[in-house]
């Protein structure tokens, strides 16, 4: 860990290992971390943590060590210096590394994209909704299917850290590698379009799925930097990435600046941050509608725009006669939502799809519930 004093570079601390380096970064014992590709445990999250501490990162690579440099590049490091660099070169490299804008949002990844990643990128559509199982996954799965049926290349990604269920909805084996493997590869700098394709099987024509965590207690594996990288790689090779995420958006602890600790809600927050469009799903009953209005306020507070609002499981028995008109006027008054998509409760058809482990198009192509979700797809690509 080094710092700059006038025209000199001062060593702030010679760190013995990665935890030592991260501690030094938190204590701001320097401005730039010099890291070798041989540093044990160095991964995407560690680099992100350093940058969140406003510490620049400089790779120290032996001349000719192309593999080492490539590894560091995969982790987003763009500045390098040799171990025996003469003083002026070292000084220039440190100053160059300082100049890398420190980011609290991870936007540096985009700025530092490698040439193959400047290619056209698919849109990221995040399906979010408040607590209480309003039908986020049902909408996400069928929305993804409708987009694929419409001729688009789609990747459905489950980043739910509370109750992932895309795999169950589509009857994909629990053992499928999914998001945990993708995040691990992202952390180690080995996730690219090819390795992503191996992790996300095609379940329907043009629809590939990266399944969620097989058990919720593995949520610490879904760290923000890795989730961001997974979505970035996913969008390189498709037209639309549909993301299913958990409902809770609160900062997990008061020490939200304690960036090193993993936080459970970061997967959803990261997805919402990188989203090109957000589909918000609420349940069509008094409890669900109240949560939906609150949820819309919460998103607005985070400066996330709700592009499409869906009221799911709509039925007159829970909201009274003429449910459509009622809900439209209620959402307009309290949520400022003008044209919500209303999806009826249809236990028979939705259960049939769930039982068969497939999408509504396969079991009930002419149903109102399917065509309502198809209109969400139309709104998303409008
Ligand atoms: N429109 C609907 N009609 C009937 N059942 C529905 C409908 N939407 C969702 N469901 C059912 O509600 C339950 C929760 O849906 P799910 O999509 O898993 O919720 P979430 O992802 O929000 O937790 C599932 O059993 C699903 O089949
Ligand atoms: Mg779900």
Automatic annotation (TrEMBL):
GO molecular function: ATP binding; ATP hydrolysis activity
Keywords: ATP-binding, Nucleotide-binding
Residue intervals of the CobQ/CobB/MinD/ParA nucleotide binding domain: 126-346
GO cellular component: cytoplasmic side of plasma membrane; cytosol
SUPFAM superfamilies: P-loop containing nucleoside triphosphate hydrolases
Family matches, as InterPro entries: CobQ/CobB/MinD/ParA_Nub-bd_dom (IPR002586), P-loop_NTPase (IPR027417), ParA/MinD_ATPase (IPR050625)
GO terms of biological process kind: negative regulation of cell division
Protein name: AAA family ATPase
């Amino acid at each position: 860990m080094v710092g700059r004093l006038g025209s000199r570079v001062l060593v702030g601390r010679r760190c013995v290992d990665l935890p030592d380096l991260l501690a030094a970064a938190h204590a701001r014992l320097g401005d730039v971390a010099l890291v070798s590709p041989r540093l044990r445990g160095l991964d995407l999250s560690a680099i992100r943590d350093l940058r969140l501490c406003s510490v620049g990162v400089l790779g120290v690579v032996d001349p000719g060590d192309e593999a080492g440099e490539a590894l560091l590049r995969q982790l987003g490091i763009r500045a390098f210096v040799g171990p025996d660099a003469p003083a002026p070169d070292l000084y220039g490299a440190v100053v160059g590394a300082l100049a890398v804008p420190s980011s609290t949002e991870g936007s540096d990844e985009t700025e530092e994209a490698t040439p193959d990643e400047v290619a056209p990128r698919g849109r990221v559509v995040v399906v979010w909704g408040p607590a209480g199982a309003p039908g986020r996954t049902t909408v996400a799965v069928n929305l993804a299917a409708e987009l694929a049926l419409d001729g688009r290349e789609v990747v459905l990604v489950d980043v739910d850290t509370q109750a992932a269920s895309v795999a169950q909805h589509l009857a994909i084996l629990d053992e499928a590698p999914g998001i945990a493997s993708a995040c691990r590869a992202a952390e180690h700098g080995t996730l690219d379009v090819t390795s992503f394709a191996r992790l996300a099987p095609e379940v329907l024509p043009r629809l590939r799925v990266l399944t969620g965590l097989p058990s919720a207690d593995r949520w610490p594996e879904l760290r923000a930097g890795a989730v961001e990288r997974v979505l970035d790689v996913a969008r390189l090779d498709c037209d639309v990435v549909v993301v299913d995420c958990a409902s809770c958006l609160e900062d997990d602890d008061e020490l939200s600046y304690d960036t090193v600790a993993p936080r459970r809600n970061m997967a959803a927050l990261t997805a919402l941050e990188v989203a090109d469009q957000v589909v918000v799903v609420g349940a069509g009953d008094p409890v669900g509608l109240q949560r939906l209005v609150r949820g819309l306020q919460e998103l607005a507070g985070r400066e996330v725009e709700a592009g499409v609002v869906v009221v799911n499981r709509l039925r007159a028995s829970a909201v009274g006669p003429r449910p459509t008109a009622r809900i439209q006027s209620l959402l307009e008054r309290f949520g400022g939502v003008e044209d919500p998509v209303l999806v009826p409760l249809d236990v028979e058809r939705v259960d049939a799809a769930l039982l068969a482990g497939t999408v509504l198009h396969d079991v009930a192509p002419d149903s109102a519930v399917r065509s309502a979700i198809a209109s969400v797809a139309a709104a998303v690509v409008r």
